[in-house]
Amino acid sequence: MKSDTIAAPATALSSAGIGIIRISGSDCIEIADRIFRAKSGKKLADCVSHTIHYGFIKDGDTLVDEALVMLMKAPNSYTREDTVEIDCHGGTLVMKKILEAVIHAGARMAEPGEFTKRAFLNGRIDLAQAESVIDMINAKNDFAWKSSLDQLTGSLSKVIRKLRERILHETAFIESALDDPEHYPLEDYPEKLELIVQELKREIERLIQTADNGRIRKEGINTVIVGKPNVGKSSILNVLVGSERAIVTDVAGTTRDALEEQIQLSGISLNMIDTAGIHQTEDIVEKIGVERAKAYLERADLVLYVVDSSRELSEDDFIVAGLLEEKNVIVILNKSDLEQRVTQAQLESISSHIISVSAKAGDGIAELTDMIQGMFLHGDISYNDQVVITSLRHKNSLIEAFESLEQVEESIQNQMPEDFYSIDLMNAYDSLGAIIGEYLEDDLANEIFSKFCMGK
Predict the structure, then answer these.
(1) Which of 43, 159, 290, 361, by CA, is between 20 and 30 Å from 337?
(2) Rounded-to-integer distance, Cα 290 and Cα 60, Å
């Protein structure tokens, strides 16, 4: 673990009332004393922890700014190291000059996520809590914020630790019984262990089952609007967004490239992508737009397939329909305010979710949003004590633990020697440990923290 002193802006380098420069490490207080002149004349090294001091920042003989300096001595700080935060005037230039003064005094620039990485390595938080920090910073809706906050306060970690404690208890018993069978008899133990393993599997499976809903609630539903030209795709986007986000005309092919927008529907996010009309064309620009639309389809959680219900179905409609196999599709029969020439029965082979709307009049839009929620929010994910998995890494580790417990169950049923049980039990123990960072490769830790912003 590095013990050198790091520094970085903890707030954005932009015009603002206040900016914060954070410093942490073994020489933190000494470095801060080299640049800070307290109005009281006292050195920070002589002050008690968790106090705020008024004074001035100087780089050599040059006065840089008036500031408040917060002192937090180890171990009672975010990183469990000596930490100083300089509250200065906001603004790109002044913050850069203060940061330069700190670097000149002996600190180095922090790497992305290094403050939180030190908090993790120094045992203040576990890995699941560390990941929740960046999730909270990036939260796009209330659910993402609340689930990140719950994880930061240890809700997931507590569940994982309890599961690991139970697994470790059984592993220790098996090892003790193999070493001292006289005092730890294994008679009837396989039957008892099988019941315990089945209960552990049920608890892990419940967590796994929350993962898809959790990811969608946290990250949003990747939603692609497709259809042939001039069926009202951009009008659908505009009415869902609530503003004239996309250009709408009567000219076919107005949208030539994808247009992205994020909207909120009762606590969930839709990452909307309005694509160019898919059809046969010789226009080079339109061809590029069509290919991009097809590429977006590959990554879609949900496809809104828009059909102009006032016109008979054409070959272009069926070209689009052919791209929608094995997709979650809602067929939108747009222009329901006009005379209808397309029926729901004609499109039932594409999806069981079909709805008539009028983007122009706003008819059917509320029913469309209800349909989207019904398709994706299975079960009740609410803001209570329920632990929800929102990380793909956590989900994969849970699946690995579940599969290891299945191996234990299979060994019991096949009447294998007891030492086979302990091997797979420990594999499950390690897989769960990877979630909270108690069994983790350095490369993975580095990858996780590299996604953080500077100063956090």
Answers:
(1) 290
(2) 61
The predicted pLDDT at position 27 comes to 95
Nearest to 264 by CA among 214, 213, 319, 217: 217
Whole-number pLDDT of residue 249? 37
Largest CA distance in the chain: 87
* Token output for 153: 């306060």
Cα 46 off chain centre by = 42
CA neighbor of 246 nearest in space, from 235, 262, 256: 235
Residue 32 structure tokens:
């801060």
Contact 299, 288 (CB under 8 A): no
Q: Which of 29-43, 93-107, 164-178 shows the lowest per-residue confidence on average (mean pLDDT)?
A: 164-178
- Contacts of 350-358 with C-beta under 8 Å, sequence gap 24+, read 350/305, 350/321, 350/324, 351/305, 351/324, 353/329, 354/330, 355/330, 355/331, 356/309, 357/236, 357/332, 357/333, 358/334
3-state SS, residue 360:
coil
Contact between 236 and 306 (Cβ < 8 Å): yes
* Overall average pLDDT of the 18-30 stretch: 96
Q: What is the dihedral of CA 6, 11, 16, 18, to 10 degrees?
A: -60
Task: Give the DSSP H/E element, type plus range, for residue 251.
Answer: none
CA proximity to 79, closest of 393, 434, 447, 449: 449
Q: How confident is the model at residue 252 (pLDDT cuts 50, 70, 90)?
A: very low
- Helix 114-121 to helix 442-450 angle, to the nearest 10 degrees? 140
Residue 363 DSSP symbol: B
Sequence-ordered alpha helix ranges (H) in 260-304: 284-298
N- to C-terminal Cα separation, the chain = 17
Tokens in use for 77? Answer: 């700080």
Answer for the pair 256, 333: CB distance below 8 angstroms, yes or no: no
